[in-house]
Design a protein that fits this description.
The protein is mainly beta. It has a single domain, classed as Jelly Rolls, CATH 2.60.120.10. It is built from no helices and twelve strands. Strands 2-3-12-6-10 form a five-stranded antiparallel sheet, with no helix packed on it. Strands 5, 7, 8, 9 and 11 form a five-stranded antiparallel sheet that branches. Strands 1-4 form a two-stranded parallel ribbon. A hairpin with a 6-residue loop joins strand 7 and strand 8. The radius of gyration is 13 Å and the shape is globular. 31% of the residues are buried.
Length: 113
């Protein structure tokens, strides 16, 4: 099932210069609705109960998605809670789950000047 993305109203969203996106309650093999954004870097956060991996994916055309890599070149695919910086963000970003129980995914990016 495709999970809707929300522009978070958290304290982080109220910080100047920050875009905060959240995908709530991933279960099973949900795919997050893509975010179209223009930031170069971001911070990806996963919290919840895992049974398998959640992967952050990116696309330049909103059709073909591939796994993003962190600043160390590792695939951004996680089976436990994590906060990690992204090296590069393409125009479209989404999380993709594979058999998780209940996970919330968040993405923080810098607002364009």
């Amino acid at each position: 099932m495709v999970k809707a993305v929300t522009q978070s109203e958290s304290a982080l969203q109220k910080m100047p210069g920050v875009n905060a996106y959240s995908w709530e309650a991933f279960t099973g093999s949900d795919t997050g609705a893509p975010v179209q954004q223009s930031a170069k870097k971001g911070v990806f956060c996963l919290q919840g109960t895992f049974g398998a991996a959640v992967t952050l994916e990116g696309s330049f055309d909103d059709v073909t998605y591939t796994t993003l890599k962190d600043v160390n070149g590792n695939a951004m695919s996680y089976t436990a809670a994590v906060i990690v910086e992204t090296q590069v963000l393409p125009p479209y970003v989404r999380p993709n789950a594979a058999g998780v129980s209940n996970v919330v995914a968040s993405l923080l990016t810098q607002k364009s000047a």
